[in-house]
Amino acid sequence: MRVKPRLYSGGIFRRQFFALFGTTIFFFGATCLALLQGTGKAIIDRQVEVSTAYRDEVRSRVVDWLSERSSDVQYFARSLDAEEGSLSPARAASSLSLFVGVESIFREAILVAPDGMVVASKSGPAKALTSVADRDYFKAALAGGSFVSGVIRGRRTGSAEIAVSSSLRPGSRGPGSPGYVVVGFLPLEAVSAIVEDVSLRDMGLAYLVDDEGRVVSSPAYIKAYKELGSEAAGASVDNLAARELRAGRQGSGTYVGYEGTSVVGAYTKIQPIGLGLVVELSRDRALRPVTTVLESGLIFLIIALALLALVSVFLSGRLVAPIRALADAADAVIREKDYEPLDFRTGTELDQLVELFNRMSAVIREREESLKDSAARDSLTGLYNHARIEEFLDLEIRRKRRAGGEVTFVMLDIDFFKRVNDDFGHLAGDEVLRGIATILEDSVRGGDIAGRYGGEEFSVILDARSYEEVAVFCERIRKRVAESSFASEGSHVRVTVSLGWTRQSAEGLGPYDFVRSADRALYSAKEAGRDKVVGLVGREGSAYSDGRPDAAG
């Protein structure tokens, strides 16, 4: 590849200038984005303030409303106490009915005796013995004050209600004697209506939760409460607000809200009813001004990217392309692929780098070939090592599968080699190994491959045309070793070798099968007294003798 320099561009400095120009644009955009994010944070902080203000406003409304209802009950209790004459259960029931009729927000009202038995309700005198002595609203009012309960289940209706109670002032007229209590029952829907009446428009929502995180202000909860009870009246909400309220804390923050979207919320407990109030504002709506700015900025960004793309094309032709050519050439060197030396001129310092790279890659290839050959050979004998022999055997098997024919593999082991090391020393043993390696190198032909398989074992991948040729080769090796004397430090060492070989079709077999078969033959040679040659041929491993396979073997 040859890159011709253009007249309007000049060396690496100018290219670096354009790269820095692009980097400047990038950081300019990043700075703008950071400013937009800062604006977004300010908006979120403002939304936190708004949600907190809404929260406090709603809590104030609910508390004031509950206070008014408590005052209604107290006033009614005083009016009962102030009536002339003895107040009978029937008269009390009439007054209760009138009270509920005037204060229609109350669902029910009852008069309770000091022992906790219900005397009358708005429907009339009590016809059955009903006790509310265990209820908090009765106990608190009996002590002489007023009380507003949490959410309770109405005994008659089963609905979710809030009880407001007050004691009658001391007197001496029948039911109005000390200890009588008036109780009014407010439906939970009434409190929920106050919460829902907050004008959040499409900004978000406000709702009430109990200690279990259930949204008690929803119509679905109120309906389910009546049908199933509080324990099965709805699924719990597990978000930041619900967890903080459960821990008795109030606050605000950004989290995943009741409807599963990101919100800015504020939360607090409403006393005395013990419910949590949560006000959630849509985070997406709050950030809509920032989103609009980003959308407008995106158009500008697209235009800027188009311009930068043109600059990138220019840079690719003048700087990136030569560097990429160097990278591809380096990759080819790493992957040992063939490649042509780089041939281009840029008119910059890259030209010297290209020349040095071409020279370096040539040196690397020469050294690599030398290292590969060294790594594949046994350091003592110079023969191919175990791993390389198995690679060659695998290649030979594949070649025979394509071309047809049989694979021959020979294993050779020095008999009683340990005695050589014990009697003459390891240096003498090394001389014996080198001597046998020399015999193998002298005996193999161009298509044969000899190697040291490990320890005192050698192997040969033999390119033979017949069983007889293999047997003759192995016998020649055995005889040459037996007739040789290996000198070491004034001593002459003589050894014998045992050889096992196998020859069979390569179809369906791998290197391990040939090694195992040749090793079996070698074991048979040693069992036969050593200094022997044994061959196994075919898939059944028949012993070879007298010029033919012996099926009985």
Structure at a glance:
By secondary structure, this protein is of the alpha+beta class.
How many runs of DSSP E, i.e. beta strands?
19
The largest sheet is: 7 strands, mixed
CATH topology of the largest domain: Beta-Lactamase
Q: What would CATH call the architecture of the largest domain? A: 2-Layer Sandwich
- The CATH class of the largest domain is Alpha Beta
Low-confidence parts, pLDDT < 50 over ≥5 residues?
1-10, 170-174, 546-553
Our Rg estimate from Cα atoms comes to 50 Å
CATH superfamily of the largest domain: PAS domain
Secondary structure: helix percent: 40-55%
Q: Would you tell me the overall average pLDDT?
A: 81
| Helix-strand category | alpha+beta
Shape: elongated
**What is the CA–CA distance across the termini?**
66 Å
Q: What is the helix tally?
A: 14
Q: Strand fraction band?
A: 15-25%
Number of spatially distinct domains: 3
- Order of strands across the biggest sheet? 12-13-11-16-17-18-19
Q: What features would you describe in this structure?
A:
- The protein is α+β, with helices and mostly antiparallel strands and 553 residues long.
- It has three domains: 1-286, 2-Layer Sandwich (Beta-Lactamase), CATH 3.30.450.20; 302-374, no CATH class; 376-550, Alpha-Beta Plaits, CATH 3.30.70.270.
- Helices cover 49% and strands 20% of the residues.
- It is built from 14 helices and 19 strands.
- The protein has helices at residues 12-82, 89-102, 136-142, 188-196, 219-228, 240-246, 283-286, 288-334, 350-375, 386-403, 417-424, 426-443, 467-483, 511-527; strands spanning 108-112, 118-121, 124-125, 146-153, 160-167, 181-187, 204-209, 251-256, 262-270, 275-282, 406-414, 449-454, 457-462, 486-488, 491-493, 497-505, 533-537, 542-545, 548-550.
- It has a seven-stranded mixed β-sheet with strand order 12-13-11-16-17-18-19, sandwiched between helices. A six-stranded antiparallel β-sheet has the order 3-2-1-6-5-4, sandwiched between helices. Strands 7-10-9-8 form a four-stranded antiparallel β-sheet, with helices on both faces.
- The longest helix has 71 residues, at 12-82.
- The protein is elongated.
- It starts with 11 loop residues before the first helix and ends with a strand.
